[in-house]
Design goal:
The chain is α/β, with parallel strands linked by helices. It contains 18 helices and 12 strands.
């Protein structure tokens, strides 16, 4: 586990989800393109590679709606690595027909990759590479606390046509001991397959992480505050969630109406029964942090404000408009985390309905919060906005934008378009446009590099930017539009897009503003 002080060193990095990497198999994975990206980061003087959650994607292909909070996504397993182990043939890893270089077709990718993962499992079972059987068994024993739930849940999803667990036969839905014992025996081979997939994910992950460490590149992960209702976690720990007698969500999470959505965002995740978690010493959460730090050096906690207060919406509601704020576990939670781990390297995503209580909680535990430059220029323009770079505290992480924002080029074009409108919208946008140009001393022709420079030049300890901003992409490169359920998460970077020229420009800026390691 990395030292918590690692975030107090002046540094920078790039946000790129693994599925967005190029490659021949329909989506990015832990294969050769991941290693090339590490090489790019190291050559460009970057300290961090930040990703979205790497657990299996759920509804809408969202990595924030996973069927397991602690498992790795099967589609991230490198088929090329399985070929090197002689678990797949050259014919097995032939490119996916019809795959687009710029978008992920998740349905096609999942089917293609699962077929090959099952072939690899069959060959592993028949003739495992030397030493691998013992390593596999050791992995299963060491991770049994979460792996057994995940593998059984996944096997049951397979035999129940992927139906939600609330629609399974009642004895299985309700986890009656006799039913689960019989199914564990009947589904032993399927359970073993899902354990094998997790083993391959972890061995490949560990190799990539070690490669990054050798080159001075650390990994930043993402912990969503909530988990999907249709998940091994909720099925296995029903008493920790706000569910009714049949396991359906009684209260769900989201946020009230905001600038992203007039009806708010209804996430649909069941809320925690925080009092029960407190009584158990937050043991489930401690296990979750342990799993995360086996993968990453730093954790970004998504929706940090939910630990202070959270928006609760009745499970039957169709929008998030009619909810209520309820108190979260607050410092009781982080005191328990601190008692178990000491101090952890955490970035708190403190955006949204931030109150004085949220800020007090963040600062009590010394956690860096977020600053998003796309939000910095819409104030009164008197130079006193706390969101402008010259007003940042050192203890924060500044982003040009996140996965929930438009690309910087797309954002700037949106401001320009609104500035041509009439009425209050146009007046506000024209004021914002003037502030952007004056503050950044720019004509906007390279607005992406203007914001990257502003982030790097700021006093913030950590500066991060999506790879789409390095590439200067417009809205077509956007990863996610909050409040929408379709068409998100699918963007891919084309092969060769990150040129040596881009890397040199980024390295020069990083060195200029004192963020590059001495060896860069």
């Amino acid at each position: 586990m990395a030292s918590p002080d690692i975030l107090s060193n002046r540094s920078s990095g790039v946000l790129l989800h693994l599925t967005s990497l190029p490659g021949p198999h329909g989506s990015g994975d832990l294969g050769p393109a991941a290693y090339r990206f590490v090489d790019f980061l190291a050559a460009a003087g970057q300290r961090w590679w930040q990703m979205l959650p790497v657990s299996p994607a759920g509804g809408g292909n969202s990595p924030y709606q996973s069927p397991s909070a602690m498992a790795g996504s099967p589609i991230l397993v490198s088929l090329e690595d399985l070929r090197r182990q002689r678990l797949l043939t050259a014919a097995d890893v032939a490119p996916l027909r019809g795959a687009r270089p710029d978008r992920v077709d998740f349905a096609a990718v999942i089917e293609y990759r699962e077929t090959r993962l099952r072939r690899a499992y069959e060959r592993f079972t028949a003739a495992p590479p030397r030493g691998e059987r013992a390593a596999f068994e050791q992995f299963c024993r060491r991770n049994a606390a979460w792996l057994d739930h995940h593998a059984l849940f996944s096997a049951l999803k397979d035999v129940n046509a992927n139906k939600p667990w609330t629609e399974w036969p009642a004895p299985v839905r309700d986890r009656r001991h006799g039913a689960l014992l019989g199914l564990s025996r009947a589904l032993a081979d399927s359970i073993r397959f899902h354990q094998f997939v997790q083993y391959q994910f972890r061995r490949q992950w560990d190799a990539l992480r070690a490669y990054g460490r050798e080159r001075g590149v650390g990994l930043i992960g993402d912990i969503p505050i909530y988990v999907s209702h249709d998940s091994a976690d909720v099925w296995a720990y029903r008493t920790l969630f706000e569910l009714d007698a049949k396991g359906r969500p009684a209260q769900v999470g989201g946020v009230p109406p905001d600038h992203f959505s007039k009806t708010g965002q209804l996430w649909g995740n069941p809320l925690y029964r925080w009092h029960r978690m407190l009584n158990r010493g937050f043991d489930w959460w401690i296990s979750r942090f342990e799993a995360n730090y086996e993968l990453f050096d730093v954790a970004r906690i998504d929706h940090f404000i939910g630990f202070h207060r959270y928006w609760s919406v009745p499970g039957a509601h169709k929008t998030a408009e009619r909810g209520k704020w309820l108190p979260g576990p607050d410092d009781k939670f982080f005191n328990a985390i601190r008692r178990h781990f000491g101090v952890l390297p955490i970035i708190a995503e403190d955006v949204g309905a931030v109150t004085d209580g949220v800020i007090a909680l963040r600062d009590k535990f010394g956690l860096p919060g977020l600053k998003i430059l796309q939000y910095a220029f819409g104030g009164r323009g008197n130079g006193n906005s706390p969101n402008l770079p010259h007003s940042f505290p050192r203890r924060c992480a500044v982003y040009t934008g996140t996965h929930d924002n438009d690309t910087t080029v797309g954002w700037f074009k949106g401001v320009q378009a609104r500035a041509r409108a009439r009425g209050k919208v146009g007046v506000k946008a024209r004021h914002e446009l003037v502030t952007i140009k004056r503050y950044l001393d720019t004509d906007g022709r390279e607005i992406n590099w203007d914001l990257i420079r502003a982030a790097l030049a700021s006093v913030a300890d950590t500066a991060l930017f999506p790879v789409q901003d390095l590439l200067g992409l417009d809205t077509s490169g956007r990863m996610n539009l909050p409040g929408t359920g379709e068409g998100n998460w699918a963007w891919r970077m084309r092969e060769g897009a990150l040129t040596e020229k881009i890397g040199e420009r980024l390295r020069d800026l990083t060195q200029t503003y004192g963020r590059a390691p001495a060896s860069a």
